[in-house]
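Task: sequence design from structure.
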């Protein structure tokens, strides 16, 4: 027979699966008729755009493209530098067990490498490799017993557990668009390269809304009609609102920005400007820490009870920590000499991370690729960084993202390069906890009444007063009282206890 109980519902956020995969995208392109023949490749870069993602039964599908800019040496008398802009479409499917439509997808797609090979003067082959990090998350409403209504002598062992309950999710589409001005003396001939990075991310919580703010950092390398290479940088502000019902300042927001489309449109030459439009999808998952009182065990001295219990995994102690790591170095690069540096690519890479109590040790390297004249030079700077992260323990789960908040390179008179780089480490940490919840309690009506008696018991290793009281259908209160125990949480092996039994 079921016992009358009161129940509570909790929305549990569970990680169903995680995978890291790669995809290779390869395609041949014909050089447009308006462009000169290709002699040699100089540099290729790209921006990943994801315009569609789906969770299907047993798999995840991503559709997107890589917007590439290719710099090359033209096969003509003047041997000028020219450029091509191409788009590589891709579709990536990743198999997963136990996933289905309606679950949440957290994805991160980054361009690992992109290479261009000259097949002949009018044809090229572009090969790109992208890294795909996927996490599938399920939100499940768990109903559990939190009190028993009609048994007066019920004994209950409770535990207070802090869990992160999903408060709500939301997404919005925002645009970073502006007209980038170039110098009035520059007549734009070609755009050689575009870099887009989303930096300075902020969130602010207002009534039922999350305000998201960031900057799109645009770096544009362009060629003038008198064959000069020039660079311009601009920050385009991003702002939007995401609706999340009942959100408050104490809640945690995980916000992810993803580029969906990139539009670059040069205006008329006399306007000395280029129109840039970056379409982004911004996703927000909001969590609230709840202290839940869970029944871990129960019994009655007068009747036999049984219960159905299940174990679930839930995320707790979710936290976002940010810190800045600054690099100030001088490097001698003889190849550059007195040449002008047109462009620098900076790519940080974490090789190893070690989680200790309250901090994380990172070992990595920064790949710095200089473009000067018609040549390139790569240098590698190793780094070791000890990041303080209060509350983290060895079994914590973390995700680390690195944003480049500053990069500045100056050629000194002695041909050294003064390097200034600021890396912002953004760590999302949490712990996965296994918890037990009771779903149903039943009464066994076949128990025969026992007369009052007293048992003498000697404490064994692993005993607790709860286990002893439950075993002999007594109560902790009675055992403590009759034995004059001062601290019910401290009993010693070999102690003699008098146990009153009902």
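Answer:
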């Amino acid at each position: 027979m079921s016992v009358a109980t009161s129940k509570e519902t909790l929305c549990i956020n569970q990680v169903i699966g995680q995978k890291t995969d790669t995809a290779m995208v390869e395609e041949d392109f014909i050089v447009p008729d308006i462009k000169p023949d290709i002699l040699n490749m100089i540099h290729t870069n790209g921006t990943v755009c994801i315009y569609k993602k789906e969770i299907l039964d047993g798999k995840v599908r991503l559709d997107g493209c890589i917007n590439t800019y290719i710099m090359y040496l033209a096969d003509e008398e003047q041997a000028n530098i020219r450029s091509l802009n191409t788009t590589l479409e891709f579709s990536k499917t990743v198999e997963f067990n136990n996933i289905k439509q309606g679950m949440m997808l957290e994805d991160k797609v980054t361009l690992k490498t992109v290479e261009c090979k000259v097949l002949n003067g009018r044809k090229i082959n572009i090969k790109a490799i992208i890294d795909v990090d996927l996490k599938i998350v399920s939100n499940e409403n768990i109903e559990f017993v939190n009190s028993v209504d009609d048994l007066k002598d019920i004994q209950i062992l409770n535990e207070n557990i802090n869990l992160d309950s999903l408060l709500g999710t939301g997404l919005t589409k925002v645009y970073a668009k502006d007209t980038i001005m170039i110098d009035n003396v520059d007549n734009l001939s070609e755009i050689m390269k575009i870099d887009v990075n989303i930096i300075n991310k902020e969130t602010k919580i207002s009534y039922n809304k999350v305000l998201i703010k960031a900057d799109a950092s645009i770096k544009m390398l362009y060629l003038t009609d008198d064959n000069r290479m020039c660079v311009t940088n601009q920050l385009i502000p991003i702002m939007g609102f995401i609706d999340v019902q009942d959100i408050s300042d104490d809640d945690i927001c995980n916000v992810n920005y993803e580029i969906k489309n990139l539009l670059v449109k040069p205006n008329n030459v006399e306007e000395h400007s280029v129109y840039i439009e970056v379409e982004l999808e911004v996703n927000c998952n909001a969590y609230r820490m709840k202290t839940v009182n869970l029944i871990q065990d129960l019994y009655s001295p007068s009747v036999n009870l049984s219960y159905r219990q299940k174990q679930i995994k839930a995320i707790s102690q979710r936290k976002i920590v940010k810190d800045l790591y600054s690099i100030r170095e001088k490097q001698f690069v003889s190849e550059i000499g007195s040449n002008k540096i047109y462009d620098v690519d900076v790519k940080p890479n974490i090789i190893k991370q070690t989680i200790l109590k309250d901090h994380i040790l990172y070992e990595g390297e920064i790949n710095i690729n200089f473009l000067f004249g018609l040549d390139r030079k790569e240098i590698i700077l190793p780094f070791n960084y000890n990041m303080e992260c209060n509350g983290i323990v060895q079994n914590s789960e973390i995700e680390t993202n690195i944003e480049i908040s500053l990069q500045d390179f100056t050629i000194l008179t002695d041909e050294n390069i003064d390097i200034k780089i600021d890396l912002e480490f953004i760590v999302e940490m949490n712990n996965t906890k296994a918890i037990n919840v009771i779903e149903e309690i039943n009464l066994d009506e076949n128990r025969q009444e026992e007369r009052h008696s007293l048992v003498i018991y000697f404490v064994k290793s692993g005993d607790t007063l709860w286990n002893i009281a439950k075993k002999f259908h007594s109560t902790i209160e009675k055992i403590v009282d009759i034995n004059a125990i001062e601290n019910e949480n401290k009993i010693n092996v070999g102690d003699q206890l008098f146990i009153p039994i009902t």
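Residues 476-483 form the longest helix (8 residues).
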